Amino acid sequence: MPASMADWRSQCPLNIALEIFGDRWTLLILRDLLFKRFSTYREFQGSGEGVATNILADRLKKLVEQGIITGARSTEDARIISYKPTAKGLDLLPVVVEMILWAARYEKTAAPPRLIRHMSRDRASFIAETRARFEPDAS
Amino acid sequence: MPASMADWRSQCPLNIALEIFGDRWTLLILRDLLFKRFSTYREFQGSGEGVATNILADRLKKLVEQGIITGARSTEDARIISYKPTAKGLDLLPVVVEMILWAARYEKTAAPPRLIRHMSRDRASFIAETRARFEPDAS
DNA sequence: TCATATTACTTGCATAATGCAAGTGAGTGT
DNA sequence: ACACTCACTTGCATTATGCAAGTAATATGA
User: What's the rounded Cα separation, in Å, for the pair B117 and B111?
Assistant: First the structure.
């Protein structure tokens, strides 16, 4: 069936996807945003993975430009910028979930087995649950 | 529920996955292997995306080391090495499919709409169909 | 059989991306 | 006013990628 797939070249959706989040940091930032519910630069920074400050700033900027997250200055403390996922960002959950499940299956990871089992048995509801926690303000 | 998710650090499955295929080329090579059914260095090379020869050699080597593909010298023409996906490699199909669907939905791509519709409506059978074409020799 | 091709790479070097330490400027708390 | 926090920049070292050319092993044709 995928005979027409042979001539995709650089407009191939996979290539486009890789241009947007095919690097070492972008999806880790998104993981912190979606699962750990981080929302500030400082939180992402102290996440434990050890992102360089300039890289973090660059990736946040690009994610905002791509419409995957939004960044809004807090009304309570004007120093703080609060980042949130957009609908486009939340729709990356299936990608992230499949990546996590693959790694948990084939590599030694620190993933809690119960969580993996839940994710694996019912991807749709796991994603729906995660998504639900952002519903009120998902752009 | 993901409260235990907060302390994943570098053993986080997402981070592990990114260390394995979180670069600009690895998944493109896998796409050619899985969808275009390419199997030789020369085919990957002429794929149109324009991989540098040293990068291609490096990625093929790493994919073999990771057990995602195998490389076997052809019995008919000993110059040719034929690469094939392993079960671990075939299990990356869900990841690739979700990435393709996300990009096709949010970005301008050259993806044939009929194919995307098929992929999207029934991911499982699309994956099964693709997988079936490798069944006889999927390590 | 012996020059010519072909396949799968290496190698060397230029350029771009990433990593690290230190610094900046707006905003806050006291 | 002063120290402090937050979200970044900046400059420079290191690493990864990109490009052109070269090489070894095998095959092909006269």
Answer: 10
Two tokens at A92? 């990356």
Chain A positions in Cβ-Cβ contact with residue B2 (cut-off 8 Å):
35-36, 115, 130
Helices (H) and strands (E) in chain A, counts: 8, 2
CA dist A17 and B129 (Å) reads 23
**Are B60 and B52 a contacting pair, CB within 8 Å?**
no
pLDDT tens-digit readout, A66-119: 999 999 999 999 999 999 999 999 999 999 999 999 999 999 999 999 999 999
B102:A109 CB<8 A: no
Q: How far apart, in Å, are the Cα atoms of A26 and each of A45, A131, B9, B17, B114?
A: 13, 19, 15, 13, 30
> Could you tell me the sign of the dihedral formed by the alpha carbons of A121, A124, A127, A133, in that order?
negative
Structure tokens at B104: 């096709």
A113 at B interface, C-beta within 8 A = no
CATH number, domain A11-137: 1.10.10.10
Does an H or E element contain A30, and which?
Answer: helix A26-34
Q: Which amino acid is at A68?
A: I
- In sequence order, what are the residues at sequence separation of 6 or more whose Cβ sits closer than 8 angstroms to the Cβ of residue B12? A28, A31, A49, A109, A110, A111
